[in-house]
Amino acid sequence: MRIELQKRAGGSSVFAVLSPFVALLLTVLAGGIMFALLGKNPVFALYTYFVEPLADPWSREQILVKATPLVLIAIGLAVCFRSGNWNIGAEGQYLIGGMFGAAIPVLFNEWQSPLVLPLMLLMGMAGGALYAFIPAILKARFGTNEILTSLMLVYVAQQFVDWLVRGPWRDPKGFGFPGSKQFNESAVLPSLSSGSDVHLGALFAVVAAIAIWFVLTRTLKGFEIAVLGQSPRAGRFAGFSAKRLTIFVFLLSGALAGLAGISEVSGSVEKLDDKLSLGYGFAAIIVAFLGRLNPLGILAAGLVLALTYIGGEAAQISLGVSDRAARVFQGLLLFFVLACDTLIHYRIRLVSRLPKAGAA
Amino acid sequence: MDVWISIFISICAASTPLLLAATGELVVERSGVLNLGVEGMMIIGAVAGFSAAQATGNPYAGAVVAVFAGAVFSLLFAFLTLTLVANQVATGLALTILGLGLSGMIGEHFVGQPGIRMEALVLGLDAIFYISIALIGAVSWFLFRTRAGLMLRSVGDSHTSAHALGLNVIRIRYLAVMFGGACAGLGGAHLSLVYVPQWVEGMTAGRGWIALALVVFASWRPARLLVGAYLFGAVTIAQFHAQAVGVAIPPQFLTSLPYLATIIVLVLIARNRRLTMINTPAALGQPFVPDR
After folding, report:
1. Which residues contact B188 (CB under 8 A, 6 or more apart)?
2. What are the residues whose beta carbons fall under 8 Å from the beta carbon of A9, sequence distance 6 or more?
3. Which residue of A has its CA nearest to B95?
């Protein structure tokens, strides 16, 4: 038996909608097998992992909190990926954004004013965009591979933030623990409703998703991104500059990652510490693909990925399964998403080993 | 004098995992496939090698298992990108994410356990080091002096022409990807059996990505990998020594050096367009569906 692919004319619109769901189903099945191999009851484990968090109001809130940075980052990545630019360094841009924004409450700890928060958000976006500008300009000017440079910068950003929170920015009254002083009230991103953990960042994510969806589907910029992404040659004939687009999409996705970073710092942690880098920048790559690079799809995909984090915590507590299971799920999910995308463009056929002579 | 010898040995130890992973990836890319999952395959090799060595008490058994684990793990990538023609960049990332997660889960019980060290063979250097050096020669010879090597390169330069000539493009690429996985696996095993030797989660620390950069740096020429890998080994060891001596630079900045060096090297190489253009496999990263 051999697998053969047959190109579909124009692609299947049915599978374009269905493929993420098929991928999710396959991931859950694979997860069940994994739990069975670990000696757990797969049905109970999957229930604990994927259903129980949805039933609990506190967990539901936490899903929204976790989905916020994932969605913000993934929207920017989707724009990059659509245009054929591989920004893999969102984790670094997220960290630098968080750090830039945190600079205001850390350096001017006493300053209380309604100006503080907007300034922090702007600084966060600027920091992320600046950090993303490095691989972008290197690609546009020298043709340097942006995958490798943006990724290397993640390690550099992690080290730099680590140095800050252990060195110059460490709270002298923090008993030697790494981390800055707690922010004052005017530097904290407000909750959406009082007493809730869900902060304003969630609203930013929704607004960003709608705005970018509009840009991608209804504007000339969106058309430019699609043309240059699918055929750089055709894009050149249309008068689009691939280099300028590279800079544009990196700045945009860097700014969104930076906004995610400062929202997380200011809305959830309320100080800069050494636990900011949780791999959201990488998980967001999965979110982008699961959402089929569509900002509105990404809103849903972000919730799914957030559920794998929260479910992972639940499974660790009640099943004793390692919290690393979450990352295995995420990796599997991306595999299945990519495999199922094949169904959109190709008909898959199983054929016997030796095709008959003369067969088409 | 002894100090210099020990520094030389430590540079060799730091360079070997990079060299192995890069050698494997070079062959993969020469066949026209871009596998960004090197980091994932390395860490799977590291955890597989460590656990097999623990189970058998024999580090050599660990290395052999790591080679197989890397090759088998790379099959996931091969199936998706070659059989299902999925996007190579995204699939490579998936392989890295899955490898890091899976190794963390498998290795959870090994954290903090003393490892089994592969002892030095001759001149203070271990067997994997010698294999890595021999492999460079073997791969050079294979790629540029054998018929099979020519076939592999032709597939990497133009899969349609190679297919028209009757070569089995997909099979050749499958074998190349598995070779890359095996090499990355062995490189990972060197980390967990010789260099550290322990299991630490995420212990590859970006080495798989640096190996990818080395292939570009070497402009797809095996002998030049040797220069690149040892340059990076030297940078790594230099920053360790600087930390040990207590240079007045924060250790985080020194740790960043190999990553910054990678970026600088990539820029310098990319500026030399002619060098890269000649050697870059023309079909690198492009999907191929055989027509029938």
Report:
1. B17, B21, B41, B42, B43, B44, B45, B46, B47, B48, B49, B66, B70, B204
2. none
3. A331
Q: Indicate the CATH number for domain A2-351.
A: 1.10.3470
* Closest residue, chain A, to B77 (C-alpha): A335
A125 and A259 in contact (C-beta within 8 Å)?
yes
Q: Answer yes or no: do A328 and B255 touch at CB < 8 A.
A: no
Q: Digits of tens for pLDDT over chain B (292 positions)?
A: 577 888 888 888 889 999 999 999 999 999 989 999 999 999 999 999 999 998 898 889 999 999 999 999 999 999 999 888 888 988 999 999 999 989 988 888 888 788 788 777 777 788 889 999 999 999 999 999 999 888 888 888 888 888 888 888 889 999 999 999 999 999 999 999 988 888 888 888 889 999 998 998 888 889 889 988 998 888 888 888 887 887 778 888 888 888 898 899 888 888 777 766 777 888 887 888 877 5
Query: Is A316 at the interface with chain B, CB within 8 A?
Result: no
Question: Cα(A331)–Cα(A279) distance, rounded to whole angstroms?
Answer: 12
- What are the boundaries of each domain within chain A? 2-351
d(CA B173, CA A72): 37
Question: Is 0.90 exceeded by the ipTM?
Answer: no
H or E element, residue B68: helix B59-78
Sign of torsion over alpha carbons A82, A17, A330, A64: positive
Instruction: Indicate the pTM of the whole model.
Output: 0.90
B242 alpha carbon, distance to own chain's centre:
26
Domains of chain B, first to last: 13-279 (1.10.3470)
Query: CA-to-CA distance for B97 and B106, rounded, in angstroms?
Result: 14
Name every residue whose Cβ is closer than 8 Å to that of residue A143 and which is 6 or more positions away in sequence.
Answer: B270, B273
DSSP string, B16-46: HHHHHHHHHHHHHHHTT---TTHHHHHHHHH
Whether A247 has its CB under 8 Å from any CB of chain B: the answer is no
Say whether residue B172 is in contact with chain A using an 8 A CB cutoff: no
